[in-house]
Amino acid sequence: MSASLDDLPLRDDLRGQIPYGAPQASLPVTLNVNENTHPVPEDVADDILDAVAQALRDINRYPDREFTGLREGFADYLGHGLQAEQIWAGNGSNEVLHHLLQAFAGPGRTAFGFTPTYSMYPLLTGATGATYVSGTRSEDFTLTASDAAEQIDRAQPDVVFLCAPNNPTGTPLRLDVIESVYEASRGIVIVDEAYQEFAPRDEPSALTLLPGRERLVVSRTMSKAFAFAGARVGYLAADPAVIDALRLVRLPYHLSALTQAAATAALRHAPTMLGMVDDIVAQRDRISATLSALGYSPYESWSNFVLFGGVKDPQATWRGLYDRGILVRDVGLPHTLRVSAGSEDESTAFLEALASL
Length: 357
Known about the structure:
Radius of gyration: 21 Å
Strand content: 5-15%
Structural class: alpha/beta
Number of helices: 12
Oligomer: single chain
Shape: globular
Strand order of the largest sheet: 2-8-7-6-5-3-4
Mean pLDDT: 95
Low-confidence stretches: none
Largest sheet: 7 strands, mixed
Number of strands: 12
Order of helices and strands: EHHEHEHEHEHEEEHHHHEEHEEH
């Protein structure tokens, strides 16, 4: 017989925990994990393949430990006068966040997030031996500057997570909230902008707040707007001193040469890659409008998904959609479900299936 977890000398704080993960199923329409369902354009894919093929010629050598070219590419993409020495990257934004927690959290320290928010925050925090503290939001999942700052002032955490826009609710986060939280905090303030590209174009990013704030970090991902989820590339912008701190905890050569080549090539085609964003936003807004017409209560979303309330029996509705070939997400919030904005055909399939229930 094989051993179970109970038979192993596992850390006490990990006993009874459940690994992170969303249901995976081979259904015709999968709209449960906020992927970009649009494929990478063929000409961009060809350029990425060429870059990866070139990198393979030197695959017997270790990659550039400082991933200099990729950091320069991210700095150019983000703009705002950022330089390569202000950029860090990892295998997905979760690894980037993990690096931050390894450097600034750990045993005897605390990390803070406003619940409900990204479910990986407490898992990543616990993995470093730190304690996660949950704050609260308004009933509509928003945060005000005064309330957020008051909660941070009371808790005084070593790390603060601000998800902008918020996952799993899609809720916008205004810059005045970030400023107030920063002023009330003595620790690292992380603004997780994984879905920032789906926000209104005239809304400023937290990147505008970086100058003069050495404890502020803005993290991003290529998984969503860049349709690069399978490549696992996340990155952040911060003061160069923060980047130096992350070098203390990263594993040697943590970004492979193939990852660096693929991501750098994709960044060269940023306008083309981001051309899909407008289509996704249009489907998101269409989904919200149709959900309202069907009698549900969609929450305001600046992301590539919609959380909607008014679901009398989320489990039964989820199963009904599943049986019709549609996979959405039950995020555990009462009387809600969440659906990613897919292609026009995928969005139509979801809406028609929901209406049929």
